[in-house]
Design goal:
Helix content: 55-70%
Shape: elongated
Structural class: alpha+beta
Distance between the termini: 28 Å
Number of helices: 19
Strand order of the largest sheet: 1-10-9-6-7
Largest sheet: 5 strands, antiparallel
Radius of gyration: 33 Å
């Protein structure tokens, strides 16, 4: 976390780039003999695209000091021109990335798609061209950059950039993004200055003149201060590593590293000597032809793989992740899935998922009609109702007095007997256990499963210290003789009332909300495990967080978010989170009462279609 914050500081970026330049200079000087290769130039791509102009400033400072102190460069005009060229070459890739029109929204520099890969390659080729031009116009007067040096610098630079993008994405390190600057002239004039600079540099390539070099650099500098559109300043945070990066980029790095290592080997063995440009060129052409024969078909394959498989799968995943609460959400899902235009198995999958979503919505609607048949079960339901009420604890105040926490619960069965339940109990002197859940179905069979589940959870929670083991054993017991095929979704937790350590396991239950450090209630989005009584020998993942005093955990059953007015408009997670944050500083009982009142108001005080269960726990 500290590293991520440091990269947001311009001062740290300057110091970081200076340190990186010094390290590369030392490696190039000691390992390769700096008369052979200027290794530090390979860092320009990485520093430019990921850390921006401040990194180039730090790089240029070290480079000038190196020229003066180590290379004994004393020509002031040459130093200024060389320094200016380094700045221009360094900032140019960063500027081009944000100026080249994006495919779908402006992004941070990354290789997470074929489009971005092609974009980077274009920028790299442009930079190679400009470096070649400047090496003849300026660098040739100070030090010699051979063909071998160009090859080594840009191969290593590309490898550093690809690895750096992966590292920044995996660690979620801040990338320096453009800031809004004042516009001095129309955009087309900035582009004209760039064209003039390129043409002028090509014209004077064989007859370099310091005055021409000065104007070339001025024209480039004018282009570099071109302001970006307001839309381009709204950068999407797309640093996550995608399938494209994981599959294609490692292969690409290996293919470009093999000829480089072969060159190193030939040099070390004395087979190849520095300055053998024609031999090196023949060697490079031969190897490039071989690897291009592999790389080009691979690139084409990855392009169609991304277009026909990866992108549709990402779209399908994003669309299906959205919660369906009403007909409007369902219509939006239909429109979104229709945008997936591929003609393969993914299209068939999207159509199947759409049918499943429609069936789910229809099922919710039919559930309201099915509940009207409860009259024929009235006698057995009354008995089960009394048993259920006896199982649900309500001694909140007495329990809170003996433990370093506060809790409150609420349960409302919309039928005579429901399947929702909660429980809390003391495990030992330091730990308190709690559970909230929902048994599928209604009636006596549901109540029997409810009683069995609550009893097993209490018993195993006092026997096993790991909650994963608790639900493992409970699940196996519930699977036995489950002829009615009833399932139990629950969330089981254990709180250390002295240290505040909270561990919990989610078996197919709704995601809870937590309020930490006096902030708002937020959802805990860990993926739940399989429902209990569904399959034997299932392993459940335990999650652990730390609660401080006044931190609050809110648990609920699906009847809360699925409460509706009879027209398929559900109460939903957004309304629940909103009412909790409006009452977050109230007493626990008041918070639960406010949620109940808000649900009744939403449903126009009509009978709810499903049971409602809530449990709230606060660390004292």
């Amino acid at each position: 976390m500290i590293t991520k914050e440091l990269f947001k500081s311009p001062k740290f970026i300057v110091l970081f780039s200076m340190a990186m330049n010094i390290i590369l200079i030392l490696i190039g000087y000691l390992w390769f003999d700096n008369n052979y290769i200027h290794l530090e130039l390979s860092a320009l791509l990485l520093l430019s695209l990921l850390l921006g102009p401040y990194a180039i400033l730090g790089f240029a400072i070290v480079e000038v000091l190196y020229w003066i102190l180590v290379l004994d460069m004393s020509n002031a005009v040459l130093i200024i021109l060389s320094l200016s060229s380094i700045v221009v070459l360094g900032i140019m890739p960063w500027k081009l990335w944000y100026l080249i029109k994006p495919k779908s929204g402006f992004e941070l520099p990354n290789m997470n798609s074929f489009y971005n890969f092609a974009k980077i390659i274009i920028i790299v080729l442009f930079m190679i061209l400009q470096t070649y031009i400047f090496s003849h116009l300026i660098f040739n007067q100070s030090f010699h950059l051979s063909l071998e040096t160009f090859y080594m610098i840009f191969i290593l630079g590309l490898i550093l950039l690809l690895l750096g993008m992966g590292l920044f994405g995996r660690l979620n390190i801040a990338v320096y993004t453009p800031k809004e600057i004042k516009r001095f002239m129309p955009d087309r004039l900035y582009d004209i200055f760039l064209v003039i600079a390129i043409i002028l540099s090509l014209v004077t390539l064989n007859n370099p003149d310091n005055l021409c070099l000065f104007f070339i650099l001025i024209f480039y500098a004018i282009f570099l201060i071109k302001p970006l559109d307001k839309d381009s300043l709204k950068i999407k945070n797309t640093q996550k590593i995608t399938i494209f990066y994981k599959t294609f980029i490692p292969i690409f790095i290996i293919l470009i590293m093999i000829p480089t290592f072969l060159l190193f080997s030939l040099t070390e063995l004395g087979i190849y000597e520095h300055g053998m440009t024609s031999e090196f060129l023949n060697y490079l052409i031969l190897l490039s032809s071989f690897f291009l024969a592999i790389l080009i078909p691979l690139t084409i394959y990855m392009y169609f793989l991304e277009k026909e498989v990866i992108n549709p799968i990402n779209q399908l995943s994003a669309y299906l992740y959205e919660e369906i609460e009403d007909d409007v959400d369902l219509d939006n899902l239909v429109n979104n899935l229709n945008c997936i235009t591929v003609n393969n198995e993914i299209r068939s999958l999207s159509e199947s998922m759409l049918n499943m979503e429609k069936e789910f919505v229809d099922y919710r609607a039919n559930l309201l009609d099915v509940t009207k048949e409860k009259e024929k079960y009235e006698t057995e339901l009354k008995l089960a109702h009394e048993i259920q009420n006896a199982m649900i604890p309500t001694d909140f105040e007495e329990f809170n007095e003996n433990n370093n926490l506060s809790l409150w619960g609420f349960m409302k069965a919309t039928h005579t007997v429901g399947g929702d339940f909660y429980d809390y109990f003391k495990i030992d002197e330091e730990h308190v256990g709690f559970v909230i859940g929902d048994v599928s179905g209604k009636g006596v069979s549901t109540t029997l499963i409810l009683i069995k589940a609550m009893t097993l959870i209490r018993d195993y929670a006092t026997y096993y210290s790991d909650l994963s083991d608790v639900l493992y054993e409970v699940n196996n017991e519930l699977c036995k003789d489950n002829v009615k095929e009833l399932f139990v979704g629950c969330l089981l937790g254990k709180l250390n009332t002295k240290t505040g350590e909270l561990s919990y396991v989610n078996a197919g239950h709704r995601k809870p909300l937590i309020r930490k450090n006096g902030g708002d209630f937020e959802f805990l989005n860990e993926k739940p495990g399989l429902l209990l009584a569904g399959m034997e020998n299932m392993h459940y993942k335990k999650h652990t967080i730390h609660l401080k005093p006044n931190d609050t955990l809110f648990l609920y059953t699906d009847g809360v978010t699925y409460a509706n007015t009879g027209n398929d408009r559900f109460y939903g997670e957004r309304n629940l989170q909103k009412i909790l944050n409006q009452n977050k500083d109230n007493e626990l009982s008041t918070i639960i009462k406010s949620v109940e009142d808000d649900i009744n108001k939403f449903c126009n005080n009509k009978e709810l279609p499903d049971d409602i269960g809530m449990l709230i726990i606060k660390m004292n």
